[in-house]
Amino acid sequence: MKSFGKRTLTEAALPPVAERPRPEVAVEEKAGFGNPLLREKVLKQIDPAVAANLSTEILEREVEAIVHEIANQERIEISGHEQFLLAKEIANDMTGYGPLQILLRDDDVNDIMVNGPTSIYVERRGRLERADIAFRDNAHIMSIAQKIAARVGRRIDESSPMVDARLPDGSRVNVVFPPLAIDSPCVSIRKFPKRRLDLSGLVANGSMTQSVARLLEIAARCRLNILISGGTGSGKTTLLNAISQFIDHRDRIITIEDAAELQLQQPHVVRLETRPANLEGVGQINQRDLVRNALRMRPDRIILGEVRGEEAFDMLQAMNTGHDGSISTVHANTTRDAITRIENMLQMGHANLPLRAIRSQIVSAIDIIIQQERMRDGQRRVLQITEICGLEGEVVTTNDIAAFQFDRETHEGRLTGKYVSSGNVPAFIDRLAYFGFDRAWADAVRTL
């Protein structure tokens, strides 16, 4: 255990830290104050093993006292404000995620993108802006990224320069190291919302109307197979979580993800997560392996966080073999594009399968596709709810149950519009009647 003077850095034996006025720091306050020599001398006085057992608040105060004493002993000119910031930065490095800690605590921040030591951007309310924080250098970014990966049993280095991980709160993290990232290690964080949005919350923030929310609720309650389509950051996972609230609590649900981030509230949920290969290049478990295994676990519903490859075939097979009410997401620009992407994924793993057979699988497995988009005003909206009707020759026929039509842009830059419907009776009307929701569905479509 390291100590200085009469002070010892252990929580049990710590004397109370002197209560000195502590400066208020804005969220955007830039880190990195203090000179490297002082930082090095402070770090020599701290045992990382002891610091790891202290709360962040106690560690900050103890480190601040160390900074203050060493600065006085060495006659280093540093203001009280800079001492406080240096102590906060060191404590965040040791127990948190360095400069990122400030952004992770900011509830207005949805995404964090680290492009370099001084190039950090965030998304607030659907718009990107530069964050006023900084890392010391590339090595500092690497250190924080490796800490994130290690906490979920993953590794990131030059031999394995890409990783998907998650933070303890469920936030999703992607890291790319050199030599793949040419200028600097890159870190992308999709924050886990502290307040879980349900469909009523999505209605309140303008993502959909009450009638559209009612359609999605009925779809979940009637065990329709749902595919949620959209671009990166469009809100697919948030929408999936909101829809999942209407899954019967008696159902056994298996979730499959690359990095676990779904927030299902049902009592009978089994969460599965993929595993990368080890140092010898073996031991990888991908989504297709997990989907196949999930079929042996007696699921009522399978929820695949994102379908992106050969596992699409197994997912459709599951939907076609008694696992109604399954949900997945896919990256696509429109509901029609989503169908094409699923076709391409099936052809990747089954090149000899005739195109008509592939499309027959899609038609019999998927009931509706929901298109989600982040529009240019920053608002995430449900743009389409499309039913897959059947096959006419070689063509998959669809029906737009609800489609958002842009009307105008307000003076505040907000896009407005309305939902319209084809008015056609859905092909799954018998299922709606079976569950007693046929009239409720017709009422919701009529009031779009």
Description:
The protein is an alpha/beta fold. The protein has three domains: 3-94, no CATH class; 101-190, Beta-Lactamase; 199-446, Rossmann fold (3-Layer(aba) Sandwich), CATH 3.40.50. The protein is built from 15 helices and 17 strands. It has helices at 36-44, 48-51, 56-73, 80-95, 100-104, 138-150, 199-204, 210-221, 236-244, 287-294, 311-319, 335-349, 355-365, 429-434, 438-446; strands spanning 3-4, 7-8, 109-116, 119-124, 127-130, 162-166, 172-176, 186-190, 226-230, 253-257, 269-273, 301-304, 327-331, 368-374, 380-392, 395-409, 415-420. A nine-stranded mixed sheet has the order 11-10-12-13-9-14-15-16-17, with helices on both faces. Strands 5-4-3-8-7-6 form a six-stranded antiparallel sheet. A hairpin with a 2-residue loop joins strand 15 and strand 16. It is elongated and about 85 Å long. The model is unreliable at 1-8, 10-21 and 23-33 (pLDDT under 50).
CATH class of the largest domain: Alpha Beta
Number of strands: 17
Can you identify the CATH superfamily of the largest domain? Answer: P-loop containing nucleotide triphosphate hydrolases
Kindly report the oligomeric state of this protein: single chain
β-strand amount: 15-25%
Question: How many structural units, i.e. domains?
Answer: 3
Reading side by side through the largest sheet, how are the strands ordered? Answer: 11-10-12-13-9-14-15-16-17
Proper CATH architecture of the largest domain: 3-Layer(aba) Sandwich
Straight-line distance between termini: 67 Å
The global form is elongated
CATH third-level topology of the largest domain: Rossmann fold
